[in-house]
Specification:
The chain is an alpha+beta fold. It has one domain. Helices cover 23% and strands 25% of the residues. The protein has 2 helices and 4 strands. Strands 1-4 form a two-stranded parallel ribbon. Strands 2-3 form a two-stranded antiparallel ribbon. Strand 2 (25-27) and strand 3 (35-37) form a beta hairpin.
Length: 56
């Protein structure tokens, strides 16, 4: 988070559906090929910093 703040990052391109980076919908992490509606761990943290997230 410190690097994000130091470099004044405004936008992040993150891997869609990743349990850590996904935004909006992610795999449940149990290797069942099932998705749940929530943000990944990292995505949630940077969202709280005001970073715009774009899924790729």
């Amino acid at each position: 988070m410190q690097i994000i703040k130091q470099h004044n990052i405004k936008v992040a391109y993150l891997k869609q559906n990743s349990p850590s980076c996904g935004y909006g919908e992610v795999y449940n992490g149990k290797f069942e090929n099932k998705k749940i509606i929530r943000n990944g761990i990292f995505a949630e943290k940077i969202k709280d910093l005001g970073i715009k997230i774009i899924n790729i």
